[in-house]
Amino acid sequence: MDLILEGIKKAIWLLITLDPEVLGITWLSLKVSGLATFISLFIGISTGTLVALTRFPGRRIVVSLINTGMGVPPVVVGLFVSIFLWRNGPFGMLELLYTPTAIIIAQAVIATPIVAGISLASIQKLPEALRLQILALGATRIQMIWMLIKEARLPLLAAVMAGFGGVISEVGASIMVGGNIKGYTRVLTTATVMETGRGNFDVAIALGVILLFFTFCINAILTSIQQRERPR
Amino acid sequence: MRMRNLLFAWILALCLASVFVGTTDVMASEQKNLILATTTSTQDTGLLDVLNPIFEKKTGFFVKTIAVGSGQAMAMGAKGEADVLLVHSPAAEKKFMSEGNGVNRMLVMHNDFIIVGPPSDPAGIKGMKSASEAFKQIAAKGAVFMSRGDNSGTNAKEKDVWKAAGINPEGQIWYQQTGLGMGQTLNVSAEKKTYTLADRGTYLSLKKNLGMDILVEGDKVLLNIYHVIEVNPAKWSKVNTHGAKAFAEFMVSKEVQDIISTFGVDKYGSPLFFPDAGKPEFE
Question: Which of A102, A219, B28, B60 is most enclosed, with most CB atoms within 10 A?
């Protein structure tokens, strides 16, 4: 119990004294997961919206695939991404393995189905009458889609938070494609695993506390946007 | 549809942006990256955290240290996915060399393995001189033994000792395997109060939190020998040959050997590794 207290104290200490290594790791975590979530936001919401609003043969299968994608183990994604990025693999010439970009790619792959699946469900839930009404009022296709997205703001932001939460906490794929290289691809989660393995439990707990703190802050901001009352 | 084109343009722009952000440094440096596949024990003791910056400053290469077990490190080398290896699994290394996967295998340093366990020592092996005899006793008493089970150098040594004791522990209830690195296996072992085989370096660096005692040490079979191997560039064209060679020479250089000889003394009272470069092979 006092180990956790020690950890919290160490977390505060590391942040106040602006410990360069911890700051670097934290900033890298936020950058990498933020960018991955951003990418998944675009691909996910657009895919989810598209599939929600159009009817085409095989739609059911596509929806099932997206929903399955939400549950794909991140470690498996990491394994496949590293196979693609190996030197002697199909994308080896890009030399992306063991770089932050590789982690961004893996995390985007993990987050996109989550964002897509939830977006799909939230757009689909909107009443059909609403869509027709917007079109009837003279909106162009783009305006209609934008209005629907705004209307479904609540669940869509939940989708983004789910995607972000999924990747900021991800460790297996990040170790596999990133390599946990000091000062380069070491993020909060991979550093926590390493420090635990080294027996530095206070540092490990501190990193965990820092991760929770920043995740909370970001989600607090997103939640306040989500819960804002619609201007009447 | 216009909307779809717009969206695709956005997505493409973002992807390109992120790829560029990530790779600008890589693209500017042809073969500046050196992938070093090594063991968890060299990383967990912090030795590479000291040596790598010196190497990077001296040569300008960027060392990507991938700490996995010796088995996985050699598998990476065999596939050309690493440039240089720092491993400690001599039998597997010899097989690696004989298959033409590596060149220039050089002795770097050694420390030793120790059998550690709970202070209560249920199998009564404390002070025994022979590792295989100790293992026999553990098996006879059915005392729980925690293995790494990950084809690492430590795991290979452990299997050698079981073999010397004439026992096959696979499948026995008292034989458990973590599949994890040395540090983590020691933590699990300490928690569950079991016996395990550990390298002295990692044990010493974790000692204060563990609550486990050294029970058997000093047996010649417990020597833990580290070699540096360059991956064979003839087999894989993408290997960073210059970097690998520079790193191998760096590890056996007098400067580094001196650093190794004093590494850990201020913190643990005794060095964690003993430098051996240039000496005749142990067997």
Answer: A102
Rounded distance between C-alpha atoms, residue B20 and residue B28, angstroms: 11
The domain that holds B246 is classified in CATH as 3.40.190.10
Interface contacts (A, B; CB < 8 Å)? 95
Helix, strand, coil percentages, rounded to 5, for chain A: 80, 0, 20
The token pair at A184 is 């380069």
Single pTM value for the model? 0.83
- State the Rg of chain A over Cα: 20
Select the residue of A92, A101, A201 nearest B209 (Cβ to Cβ). A201
ipTM of the assembly? 0.80
Nearest residue in chain B measured CA to CA from A177: B66
CATH of residue A45: 1.10.3720.10
- DSSP class of A91: T
Find the Cα–Cα–Cα–Cα dihedral B267, B269, B272, B278, rounded to 10°.
Answer: 120
Other CB atoms within a 10 A radius of the CB of residue B280 amount to 7
Q: Which domain holds residue A103?
A: 2-226
Four-residue CA torsion sign, A50, A54, A57, A59: positive
The band of B197, judged by pLDDT with boundaries at 50, 70 and 90, is very high
Domain count, chain B: 2
Amino acid identity, position A179: G
Least confident interval from A65-69, A119-123, A143-147, A163-167: A143-147
CA–CA separation, B251 vs B262, rounded Å? Answer: 15
**Within a domain: A232:** no
Bridge partner residues of B230 (DSSP): B84, B103
Cα separation, B260 vs B265, in Å, equals 10
Question: Which of B61, B65, B210 to probe by mutation at the A interface, max A CB count within 10 Å?
Answer: B65
